[in-house]
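Late entry, evening session. Most of the bench is empty. Finally got around to the prediction I had been postponing all week. Sequence below, unchanged from the version circulated by S.P.
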Amino acid sequence: MKDTLNVLLSKLRMKQLQLLIALDDQKSLHKAAGTMSMTQSAASKALQELEAMLEAPLFERSKSGMIPNPLGHCVIRYARLMATDLTALCQDVAEIRSGRGGRLAVGAIMGAIPACVVPALNQLHAGQPGLSIEVVEDTSARMLQQLDDGRLDLVIGRAAVAGDPSKYHYRPLGDEPLSVVVGHGHPPLPRKEVTLHDLAGHRWVTYPSHMPLHALLEREMDLAGIEMPDNPISTASTFVTVALLHSSAELVSLLPTAIAELFVARKMLRVVPVKLKSPSQTFGIVTRKGGVLSPPAERFIELVQAQTTEQALREEQPERPARARRRRDAAQKQKTA
């Protein structure tokens, strides 16, 4: 098998595969050669070379013409698949060059998806409806490996977790604050401020040990003088976490605030007013140094940065009237002084 593969990789030509398809359609070497703009002798030689590579005949001659045998049917099927893939490749190349299509693969940490990734993707898709988009949610460390392998075009995450962060371009976007959450059906908590000690009777839904949020919860428990629960439910799935919390008032978990607010608005979760001591982790756009970004990737980055700037301005908006009043008050005092 390996020898056959090496022979095909080194000697197989698309012209031979096109000839097979033409023979299957025309049932005649003479007619197939005509559709290929080849002489009959050249077509015969090309077929013989292909059969020699596979060490077996592919057609049987009959009164109705050249009929593929079982091996011939198999090779023709793959020839058609390869021709279809090449046609799709040419279409993608043409669309990429025209800026209409192509493919974009984005990796994103959980907390960046609602406010950064989703709005940018919606705008990108509206402008380029022919674009094929893949979104991967995982830890930054795992997504950086996929970025290195070329399976992702860019990552919305953290470059600092890499063994060598200097091999990436990093453009900061913002912080990923975290919230302690329970199901919406959880009984009202007695005080405005709650500590982790107050949640001692709850069972935790935690993240697997390889995830940064697991280490953060361990740190918070340690700072509070509490041991990590020995009977947690561990999952990396946001959907599983929310479904579990929504179904039981005895469970509690930790989620990025952006994700938590999404489900609080739909009355599936409630945020517990626990003040975490660990600082919020920052995240940003991570790309490979030396890599060439596709037009869709460049456009996506532009949209994410614009979305982040717009969101920051919206968050500052309520503070502006207060600052304006302070300036007016200060000016008034100077006049009366």
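Two things to note before I forget:
The CA atoms of residues 46 and 312 lie 65 Å apart.
The domain at 103-175+282-317 is CATH 3.40.190.10 (D-Maltodextrin-Binding Protein; domain 2).
Will write this up properly tomorrow.
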